[in-house]
């Protein structure tokens, strides 16, 4: 008996819902609808073309400019775009994601760094292992995912790791597979301690520009000694390449 009553109620609700769904909405009074939508009052609104289309009196007017509610001078917008640079530069400035913790290790390994090496002061591998928090690594025990934005501590630690890894990278670069052309890899520096453009291109993953070469040579020459300058130059190039600078 109870099952029959429940079935009857379900059928009633179902048909009642279906019949309501077929009715035309009645949001406004007939006078308001006629004034707003210019529908034919003698016809069902659903059958009147454009009965619920927007008109001049009921459509929001979006402001066609980039300002906060006030139209801006097009030349002002142009000047801002020129200062910010081309689209690919503006996009990187506003969408730079932090280098993932595991990815940093893969990059170091691919450049010939021994991540298991132990030394005093700590090696690049030891710095990487102890910098999980600063580098924003995920903490799965605490149900905290990896951060996606750089922090000051993370950027500073990244540079420290690259400085410690620089001697190994410089020594291994000629034998790094992704840097080889016709089976030969480039040396990071030539006999005059100048930066090799091909080596810089391998480190940053794109053709080295004159600015890259000038910065690299400038860092080497301005350091307290040549060897320290080489390490700082390599770390500077890698840090900039992997932090959208």
Q: Could you describe the 3D structure shown?
A:
This protein has 245 residues and is mostly helical. It has a domain at 101-241. It is built from ten helices and no strands. Helix 7 (152-172) packs across helix 10 (226-241). The longest helix is centred in the middle third of the chain and has 21 residues, at 152-172. The termini are far apart. Residues 9-29 and 32-38 have low confidence and may be disordered.
Topology:
Layout: H1 2-21, H2 30-37, H3 74-84, H4 87-94, H5 101-110, H6 124-130, H7 152-172, H8 197-204, H9 210-222, H10 226-241
Helix pairs in contact: 6-7, 7-10, 9-10
Q: Specify the helix fraction band.
A: 40-55%
Strand proportion: under 5%
The number of helical elements comes to 10
Low-confidence stretches: 9-29, 32-38
Q: How many strands?
A: 0
Q: Termini separation (Å)?
A: 76 Å
Q: From N to C, what is the helix and strand string?
A: HHHHHHHHHH
Q: Using only CA atoms, what is the Rg?
A: 33 Å
Biggest pleated-sheet summary: none
Structural classification: mainly alpha
Shape annotation: globular
Average of per-residue pLDDT values: 79
